[in-house]
Design goal:
By secondary structure, the chain is mainly beta. It contains no helices and ten strands. It is 0% helix and 45% strand.
C-alpha cells in the first residue's frame, strides 16, 4: 500500500517550514516511531515578538514503512500541505497509483544539538 506525507500545520499561524535534517534515505525502512525529518518553523512574519519566534520539531512516523520517494532536501522551505515523501508498506511495491492514505505521524518539539552550547 502506498502512503503519502504532506507538511502538517503544526501551529495555527504557520505557513511553511524549513527542512533541517532528513533522517532516512530513499529505500530505507522506518521502524514504528522512527524519526523522519526535523523542521524549523519561523513565525516572525506572522507574529511580532522581541525575539524571533522560532521553534524546532521532529516528525516521527507511526507506521512501519519504506521511504520510496523523498520530495524535500535539507534547506528547503516547504509550504504547509506540500508533499514531503511517498512511502510503501513493502519495499518493492510499484509506485504507480494514488496513495491509499496518509502515513500516521507524531510531532515533538525539540532542541537541536547545534544550540546546546549557546546561552
Amino acid at each position: 500500500m502506498l502512503l503519502s506525507l504532506t507538511l502538517p500545520r503544526i501551529n495555527p499561524q504557520m505557513v511553511d517550514a524549513t527542512i533541517d535534517v532528513a533522517h532516512i534515505a530513499e529505500g530505507g525502512s522506518v521502524v514504528l516511531g522512527g524519526k523522519f525529518v526535523d523542521v524549523t518553523v519561523d513565525l516572525s512574519a506572522a507574529t511580532p515578538h522581541d525575539c524571533p519566534p522560532i521553534s524546532h520539531y521532529r516528525i516521527a512516523l507511526r507506521d512501519r514503512v519504506w521511504l520510496r520517494r523523498l520530495d524535500v532536501a535539507p534547506g528547503d522551505r516547504v509550504d504547509v500541505g506540500a508533499s514531503l515523501a511517498l512511502f510503501s508498506t513493502t519495499p518493492d511495491e510499484p509506485l504507480e497509483g494514488e496513495p491509499a492514505r496518509a502515513v500516521r505521524v507524531a510531532i515533538a518539539g525539540i532542541i537541536p544539538q547545534t544550540t546546546w552550547g549557546e546561552g
